[in-house]
Amino acid sequence: MRKEYDFSTSRPNPYASRLKRPVTLRLDTASVHCFKTLAAEFGMPYQNLINLFLRDCAEQKRIPSIQWTPAPPPPQ
Fold first, then answer.
1. Is 49:39 a contact under the CB 8 Å cutoff?
2. CB 67: neighbour CB atoms within 10 A?
3. How far is CA 31 from the centre of its chain?
4. Burial profile 1-24: b = 16 or more Cβ within 10 angstroms, e = fewer
């Protein structure tokens, strides 16, 4: 290694905006199995497939259709 480096000709990393950040998600077993099965068909890691799916949802501004069932009233 050199004692000093010349950064005067350096330039920013053009891929810095695409760097991935490790996160922890709690997913149900059926969802993980589904993505693992699909990923095996495509010949890719299932984490990459989940990332592609989530990126597509974000780019398309998809809003999940979630319907919560109200909890029954407490017994009196």
1. yes
2. 4
3. 14
4. eeeeeeeeeeeeeeeeeeeeeeee
Structure tokens at 31: 């969802």
Helix or strand (DSSP H, E) at 55: helix 46-59
Taking the model in full, what pTM does it have?
0.66
On whether the CB atoms of residues 57 and 50 are closer than 8 A, the answer is no
Q: Does residue 46 contact residue 36 with C-beta atoms inside 8 Å?
A: yes
As a whole number of angstroms, the distance between CA 32 and CA 15 comes to: 29
In whole angstroms, what is the distance from residue 36 CA to residue 46 CA?
A: 5
CA distance 73 to 70: 9
Indicate the SS3 state at residue 41: helix
Model pLDDT for residues 17-41, shown as the tens digit of each residue: 888 889 999 999 999 999 999 999 9
